[in-house]
């Protein structure tokens, strides 16, 4: 019984610490890329709650009950708790391995403790000579089924965040006379310009975009081709444009979560493989043949994530004009990526000062209007549509 008691105490303490991470705001329910760790991805997912109650709170109660019954042993509740702990470990193992594709060592540790407790319970109280097993097993299985059903069919927390962001005006002059004459790359040259974030201008005609450059409503998206949440937003925005044909132009600016081309990614956030190469290829395709960019942009979101040789094979038949041998070395590409990275840094700094939480590093980011920015991906497409339609006073077709 002492081994079971110590295991229950370890599970109680670990569950309490994980619950504190959630309750303190260190980990949120926001869905996106760049949260930092496997634990942030797991504990920040919709599967980390049950009817909006953190599952770590349920785990805490379960281990507290188990600890109590180690001092006042009762066979039925112990068998029920052991069955439930084993079932929960199996369920959340499946979630991490096959749905989230991300693992939290601390969560796995808590589930391992649960399995140890279950084994100890069944070794000590699972003998048929001590009484029937069925009531305890059924109670535990019923509790596990209730957990699964609540997570699958129950309410889902908000998975995006909205903030108001105002950036300081960009300097007109660069480090060289040529840049001083041309200005910031996002607003450089002649063409239709729009202002977001209070003071930042974007030239629709010179920047990669999807939709008609003359459309009445403009959005700006910062994204990463290797980010699944960015891919989800890409599909949602395509659906929005189909719902409101001719109404939207979306400026798309790659901001890879990879320190090789985005030095402003914090050290604790893992790099996305191939993100820089795909971003450079997309920009090269835009510069070479803007008319083919929409198809190229869609193709580069393919899953599994493409490496550069495969991506080149995919986009080649989509281009009306072939890429030159040195297309990816165009200095403009490096300028755009540097500017996107600088925006990432400035936005994060502004949000951090406003204490907006983990949205600091979350991708994608969507500029909806004026200073309004959406971080992450909404839990339903309808929520995204509603936010954008409200901003531009649109109604359904």
TrEMBL record:
One of the record's GO cellular component terms: membrane
Principal location: membrane
* Keywords from the UniProt entry: Disulfide bond, Membrane, Oxidoreductase, Quinone, Redox-active center, Transmembrane, Transmembrane helix
Task: Tell me which positions the record assigns to the signal sequence.
Answer: none
The membrane topology term of the UniProt record is: Multi-pass membrane protein
Question: Region Disordered: which residues?
Answer: 169-191
Domain Vitamin K epoxide reductase, chain residue ranges per copy = 3-125
Q: Which CDD domains match?
A: VKOR_1 (cd12916)
Q: Name one GO molecular function term.
A: quinone binding
Answer whether the UniProt record assigns the keyword Oxidoreductase to this protein: yes
Query: Can the keyword Disulfide bond be found in this entry's annotation?
Result: yes
- The transmembrane residues are 49-71, 78-100, 106-124, 136-154
Domain of life (superkingdom): Bacteria
Location of this chain's protein in the cell: Membrane
Q: Which family does it belong to?
A: Belongs to the VKOR family.
What is the protein name stated in its UniProt record? Answer: Vitamin K epoxide reductase family protein
Biological source species: Luteolibacter luteus
Q: In the record, what lineage is assigned to the organism producing the protein?
A: Bacteria, Pseudomonadati, Verrucomicrobiota, Verrucomicrobiia, Verrucomicrobiales
């Amino acid at each position: 019984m002492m081994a079971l008691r110590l295991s229950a105490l370890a599970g109680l303490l670990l569950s309490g610490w994980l619950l504190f991470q959630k309750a303190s705001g260190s980990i949120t329910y926001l869905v996106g890329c760049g949260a930092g760790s496997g634990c942030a991805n797991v504990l920040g997912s919709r599967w980390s709650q049950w009817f909006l109650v953190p599952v770590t709170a349920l785990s805490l109660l379960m281990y507290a009950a188990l600890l109590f019954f180690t001092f006042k042993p009762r066979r039925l509740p112990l068998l029920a708790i052991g069955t439930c702990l084993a079932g929960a470990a199996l369920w959340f193992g499946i979630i991490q391995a096959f749905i989230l594709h991300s693992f939290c060592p601390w969560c796995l540790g808590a589930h391992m403790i649960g399995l140890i407790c279950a084994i100890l319970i069944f070794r000590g109280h699972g003998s048929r000579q001590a009484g029937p097993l069925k009531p305890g097993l059924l109670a535990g299985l019923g509790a596990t089924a209730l957990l699964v059903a609540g997570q699958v069919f129950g309410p889902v927390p908000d998975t995006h965040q909205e903030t108001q962001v105002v950036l300081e005006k960009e300097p007109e002059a660069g480090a060289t006379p040529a840049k001083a004459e041309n200005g910031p790359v996002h607003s450089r040259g002649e063409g239709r310009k729009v202002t977001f974030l209070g003071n930042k201008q974007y030239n629709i005609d010179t920047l990669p975009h999807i939709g008609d450059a003359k459309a009445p409503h403009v959005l700006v998206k910062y994204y990463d081709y290797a980010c699944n949440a960015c891919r989800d937003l890409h599909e949602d925005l395509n659906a929005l444009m189909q719902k409101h044909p001719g109404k939207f132009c979306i400026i798309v600016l790659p901001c890879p979560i990879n320190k090789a081309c985005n030095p402003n990614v914090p050290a604790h956030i893992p790099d996305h493989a191939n993100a820089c190469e795909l971003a450079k290829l997309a920009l090269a395709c835009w510069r070479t043949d803007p008319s083919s960019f929409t198809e190229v942009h869609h193709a580069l979101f393919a899953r599994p994530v493409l490496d550069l040789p495969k991506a080149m094979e995919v986009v080649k038949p989509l281009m009306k004009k072939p890429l030159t041998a040195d297309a990816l070395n165009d200095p403009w590409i490096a300028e755009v990526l540097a500017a996107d990275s600088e925006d990432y840094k400035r936005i994060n700094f502004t949000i951090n000062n406003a204490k907006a939480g983990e949205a600091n590093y979350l991708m994608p980011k969507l500029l909806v209007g004026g200073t309004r920015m959406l971080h992450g991906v909404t839990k339903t497409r309808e929520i995204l549509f509603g936010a954008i339609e409200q901003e531009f006073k649109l109604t359904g077709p």
